[in-house]
Amino acid sequence: MEESLSSFIALALALATSESIVYNSRRLETIGYAISVIMLRDLVQQNQDSMIICPQFPIYISILDNDQKPDETTPDRYARGIYVDHALVLPRASLKDHRSSSLADFLEGAYRNTRDWNFWRKISIDDIEVPVLEERKRSPTRHPTDFEDHVKSIITQLNLGRKQVVTQCTLLFLSPRFWRQDTVILLATAGPYYRLAVVHSSIIPHLPPLKTKKLYDLAVQQEQEKESFNVLHQDSLATAAELLNPGLSKKEKEEAYLKIAREEAEKKTKRQTVERAGRAKARREREARLSAQKGLQRKLSKYVLDAGEPAADGDEPYSQTAIEEFWAITVEMVEEEDGKFFEEIPGDDAMDIATLARRSTELNEPAWTGVICVGSDVSARYKKIIHDYLSTLANLVREDRKALGVPGNNCDEGLFPTVDALLIPCFLQDPTDLKFYLSRNEALHSGIM
What we know:
Elements: H1 5-20, H2 33-43, E1 52-61, E2 80-95, H3 103-112, E3 123-137, H4 147-174, E4 183-190, E5 193-200, H5 212-229, H6 234-244, H7 250-290, H8 295-307, H9 320-333, H10 353-363, E6 372-373, H11 377-402, H12 419-423, H13 431-440
Parallel strand pairs: 3-4
Antiparallel strand pairs: 1-2, 2-3, 4-5, 5-6
Helix pairs in contact: 1-2, 7-8, 8-9
């Protein structure tokens, strides 16, 4: 996979746009979705015929998944799950009348005969795999108080993403809907930074158990956030009225925009004054504490003081070299921290998804890379590793499409996992939950598909 100039420019524009926009405090990460979509689009390069980029992808466990009525879309109020910011979805499809033609021939014929716009209704989705899950968090602070604040801001946002995407991964492997899947790539992203892990389903028993109540609370919280995003508070209606007035002419809208731009420039100047005062105060407080500190704690504080103020707009607040030096001191102080802050280019040309998955399996938990900067050489290398793996999956799907019949139905019945095997060990840790699900549907004791 080679990144094109147009894709590189699109990524640069997405990063710059994300940095320039004033965030809505309730949905701080959403402007970064553009960065995610461009990255994921690169990952499916040349494989768009097999994979779909799905924002806000739902992963649920529902007993109704076992009902043998594929044409019904009955809501299940007992379903438990969560939304993923972005997922790469690989649908395994077949023709509903699969005796007459292979899916590959049918799709090619439909492409050449564009008059039949209803062609897609003849396609059945038999299985879905989700090779990539991405959880995006808000960008690290653009106005750090000092060096330590900058580093902690990056760590905090990425750690939030890591925690949430592991929950999503656990639920994915426990869901009967995704019974076929045994490997998933996890991305925790925040602004221009991300971390990566590859997980095999065998580590799920070693991860924290999920309870239906926790998943219900997470889902409700997500819905409430989504709802509040679309509501204007009463105290902001008057301010917004002139901007929302449909009667404004183009000239009037331009004048309103220029007025807002002037006001924003004035606010920025005032904010910068306040920030400088805040940084000066924080520095004085750190200097006062320095005399009482000893050893590594003193060394760390001294390093932060020597680093000075963050660089002006247009530059990275602090250099990656400085961050690595700071992190080395932190690791020395706190043994459970990772060794390197930023990920390095893999020295082994044979590095692949299987190798990354083995690292997690050996640890019995996701083995995360260091921090990777979007658009860097390190990022390009890992994107190629992921792209090569996704291409392998896509090629298998293409081969399936050439055959008559329903792909994937040649498995021995004994290979199909049961809901008992999937749910009981890890998901349903509460006896009440277990009894509830067992009483809901006799399909718990049958094969999934």
